[in-house]
From TrEMBL:
PANTHER family: DIGUANYLATE CYCLASE DGCM-RELATED, REGULATORY COMPONENTS OF SENSORY TRANSDUCTION SYSTEM. The lineage of its organism: Bacteria, Pseudomonadati, Pseudomonadota, Betaproteobacteria, Burkholderiales. It comes from the Bacteria. Gene3D superfamilies: 3.30.70.270. Residues 304-437 form the GGDEF domain. It holds the Pfam family GGDEF. It catalyses: 2 GTP = 3',3'-c-di-GMP + 2 diphosphate. This is diguanylate cyclase. Coiled coil: none annotated.
Length: 448
């Protein structure tokens, strides 16, 4: 089988005592692999420090503070000794942040907590904590500092009260509007995470928020905030009754911007949990639907084309039945990494379900899309899997391709690409078919 580390996008370096590693390693790895990250265990400080110094900025570094007690210190010729917290913190490379595990008794000491958070602390957790909960929290931390997506704030008001440079540094796009009656159109088109409305526009057009929220396509994770010029309890109560999620008092531009960025971070984390497949980190059905609709709207505005492909691992049930579901998961994970490595900056990739994936190529017609999907197919077919000692196998997938603007909606794109995929399966698998003169997509899905 291919090198295990290459199967997982994310890496954790964990410093803990030997008994902790022995008792938890197997279960921790099983949990972590489900969330698409691997854990490397260390029980020596010097080895851990070396690993941290050579690690990627995207890795997570976890320290069980029990290593402070009776830890073997190779600097003292393996003589057991107690290490003080200040010693440990001084030896950690300062250009990284760390996750600390501590006992409940340690957690009751505020001065210890204070020292940790002032010393490159990304987060801390109190033990006992189950392996499943710990892994889930680490997964959330990966999501927190690995997002490359742009978020959007729409502001309705006369003068923008925000630090636009600070927003841009955090990948947040600001759209300024001064027309209350077209706000619902802009929100539908741009799908912002936050809509902030100056109180003057609410006073002039009180139905503003109701018009936004009653749209059947309204995103329930979106926050609508009223910017109040000065404290007015009656106005605030009226605004909340009208549907605003929160009232914020006007303050310094920089402070207001940081407040909104904190809210954006929470929205991002919430969306990650809803829209991402835990096993691969790719978009799931929910995430794909939203992103695909946004990409179609953008392509329509800019006069671009899209190539929409569906691919499915050939005879995947046989893979699971022959070598087990754990091996099948590895095949899926390797395929997700192959596909991700061949994507363009504005392309989309989703694990749509099981062994089925969807890829959308930006500014790409269906012929070009077929060539790209074929290149992915060949790259996957070139991977050699060791199924048993001395036994190697290679696997294939079949694909179907449709395009925008030939298909106008996400649903039409899916149905037509699905019909082309069915044709590829019927024609012998391990190939990509185009949406060419196919019947209306009322076909029967393939049988295994």
């Amino acid at each position: 089988m291919a090198e295990a580390g290459l199967l997982f996008k994310n890496q954790v370096k964990l410093l803990a005592q030997t008994f902790f590693i022995k008792d938890n390693k197997k279960e921790l790895l099983l949990c972590a692999h489900k969330y698409d990250f691997d854990i490397h265990f260390f029980d020596q400080m010097s080895d851990f420090v070396t690993a941290v110094e050579n690690a990627s900025d995207q890795d997570l570094f976890v320290i069980d503070l029990d290593v402070l007690y009776n830890m073997q210190n190779d600097m003292q010729q393996q003589r057991r000794q107690t290490m003080f917290l200040s010693d440990l913190l001084q030896r950690l490379p300062a250009h990284h942040n760390y996750v600390y595990l501590q006992t409940v008794r340690q957690g009751e000491r505020f001065l210890l907590q204070q020292k940790l958070v002032e010393s490159n602390c990304l987060a801390y957790a109190e033990k006992p904590i189950s392996n499943e909960v710990l892994v889930d929290k680490l997964f959330n931390l990966f999501g927190r500092h690995k997002r490359g997506e742009t978020n959007v704030i729409v502001y309705l008001g006369e003068i923008v009260p925000l630090n636009t440079q600070l927003l841009a540094e955090h990948s947040v796009q600001l759209l300024h509007s001064q027309d209350a009656r077209s706000l619902h159109v802009k929100v539908k088109e741009m799908q912002p995470d936050i809509v902030m409305i100056d109180q003057s526009h609410f006073l002039n057009t009180e139905a503003l928020v109701r018009v936004l929220k009653k749209n059947i396509e309204f995103d329930q994770s979106r926050e609508i905030i009223m910017l109040q010029q000065e404290a007015n309890t009656t106005l605030a109560r009226h605004a909340l009754d009208s549907g605003f999620d929160e009232i914020i008092q006007k303050t310094d531009n920089d402070v207001l911007t940081r407040l909104l960025l904190n809210r954006i971070d929470k929205i991002r984390a919430s969306k990650d949990l809803i829209s991402r497949d835990r096993a691969t980190g790719l978009l799931n059905k929910i995430g794909l639907q939203k992103k695909a609709q946004e990409l179609i709207r953008r392509a329509n505005r800019e006069g671009k084309c899209l190539a929409y492909g569906i691919l499915d691992i050939d005879k995947f049930k046989l893979i699971n039945d022959t070598w087990g579901h754990y091996f099948g998961d590895i095949v899926i994970k390797r395929l997700s990494l192959v596909l991700s490595g061949l994507l363009g900056e504005h392309d989309l990739l989703s694990r749509f379900g099981g062994e089925e994936f969807v890829v959308i190529f930006w500014d790409c017609d269906r012929e070009q899309g077929k060539q790209k999907l074929d290149a992915m197919r060949e790259a996957f077919n070139n991977i050699v899997f060791e199924t048993r000692p001395g036994e190697n196998k290679q696997f294939t997938f079949s694909g179907g391709m449709s395009d925008f603007p030939s298909c106008k909606t996400e649903n039409d794109l899916f149905l037509q690409a699905d019909a082309a995929l069915y044709q590829a399966k019927q024609a012998g698998r391990n190939q990509v078919c185009l949406m060419l003169d196919l019947p209306e997509a009322g076909h029967k899905r393939w049988q295994y």
